[in-house]
Specification:
By secondary structure, the protein is mainly beta. It contains 1 helix and 6 strands, in the order αββββββ. It has a single domain, classed as Jelly Rolls (Sandwich), CATH 2.60.120.10. A hairpin with a 2-residue loop joins strand 3 and strand 4. InterPro entries: RmlC-like_jellyroll, RmlC_Cupin_sf.
Length: about 90
């Protein structure tokens, strides 16, 4: 379980060179089909659960689980019955 407060997550991510840090709330049962982002991501599931699929690999991530994605990596997301809150740090292309 993640015990790091959001402010500490934000400060650490900014110190690591991430440009933007936010807490994103996802509605219950949200599904995002395969897509990419023009930024890399460092994130933590703060509440709820989600499934992150990259190619044939799917991770079931619960509260406290960290994950990362490089920019332009195709992936899909699915959020659980209670929705989720994900803390996200983004690093845009230089």
């Amino acid at each position: 379980m993640n015990t790091l407060p959001f402010d500490a997550f934000r400060d650490q991510a900014l110190a690591e060179g991430f440009d933007e840090v936010l807490a994103r709330r996802w509605a219950p049962n949200t599904v995002l089909d395969t897509h990419t982002h023009p930024f890399s991501v460092k994130a933590v599931v703060a509440e709820g659960e989600m499934w992150l699929s990259c190619g044939e690999d799917t991770q079931h991530l619960r509260a406290g689980a960290p994950f990362s994605l490089d920019r332009e990596v195709p992936h899909a997301e699915r959020y659980g019955e209670a929705g989720a809150v994900v803390w996200v740090a983004r690093r845009r292309a230089g």
